[in-house]
Write a structure and sequence with these properties.
The chain is α+β, with helices and mostly antiparallel strands. It contains 7 helices and 9 strands, in the order αβββαβαααααβββββ. The longest helix has 17 residues. The structure holds zinc ion (ZN).
């Protein structure tokens, strides 16, 4: 498996006759798929700093090419690329569906399971795996949480402390983190490994004593947001 990773999406696209090109655009634009007669192109924003995010964007556009090419032209923003939601195939939302396609293509389940076995599930692991798969740390975190056999939630918080979106795996289904809330007692800081966090930051009072929580966090200054990996252990 090591020989096949990371999956080179640019080469894959070019093998399908799709031209892949980067453009410097200083805005929210991440990537687009354009089909005009025989001409097929994937354009991406070369201002994106992380190689992994570019590779994930190209894989996302390949997802649109495979699943939604009747649309002719699709432009995708940062919000579209982070629309992970429930990472199940056959979603009704085309952005989420393209993200699922990209996640499955770049991060094969069998390999991910092997990599996370016996490891603490924290930001340090997500960073290491995003290098292995050439994916964004955020997409990697969601894929790992989906495949992990312990309760994990992925939360993205903007720098003003408000939850932009969150996603938790089935083992953490009891936890509900509302979009737009500003959790009291949450401090934004780079913190690679999982550390205990006060349960009241993330849980309503009636559930405080049911769970022990740990969290690790990565600041993403380019996007004005922080990525949080929240682990849970049910104590009652
Ligand atoms: Zn898209």
């Amino acid at each position: 498996m090591d020989d096949c990773l990371p999956v080179d999406c640019k080469a894959l696209a070019e093998g399908l006759g799709i031209k892949v090109e980067g453009f410097d655009i200083e805005d929210d634009f991440q990537g687009m798929l354009s089909i005009e007669g025989d001409f097929k192109a994937i354009l991406y924003n070369s201002c994106i700093r992380e190689e992994g995010r570019i590779n994930f964007t190209i894989a996302h556009e390949l997802g649109h090419y495979s699943l939604h090419r009747d649309r002719k032209e699709l432009k995708c923003s940062l919000d579209d690329l982070e629309n992970m939601g429930n990472l199940q195939p056959h979603s009704k939302n085309i952005e989420r569906e393209a993200n699922v396609f990209a996640s499955y293509l770049l991060m094969p389940g069998q390999d991910v399971r092997q990599q996370i076995k016996d490891n603490a599930i924290d930001i340090a692991l997500m960073k290491r795996l995003s290098g292995r798969y050439q994916t964004s740390v955020t997409a990697t975190a969601c894929r790992v949480a989906y495949l992990a056999n312990q309760p994990i939630a992925i939360i993205v918080v903007s720098y003003d402390g408000r939850v932009k979106w969150s996603w938790r795996n089935q083992l953490f289904a009891e936890i509900f983190i509302e979009r737009g809330v500003k959790p009291e007692g949450l401090y934004l800081t780079d913190q690679d490994s999982q550390e205990p966090v006060l349960s009241k930051v993330w849980l309503p009072s009636e559930k405080l004593y049911l769970w022990e929580l740990t969290q690790s966090m990565m600041l993403m200054p380019t996007y004005g947001q922080a990525l949080i990996v929240l682990g849970g252990q049910r104590v009652y």
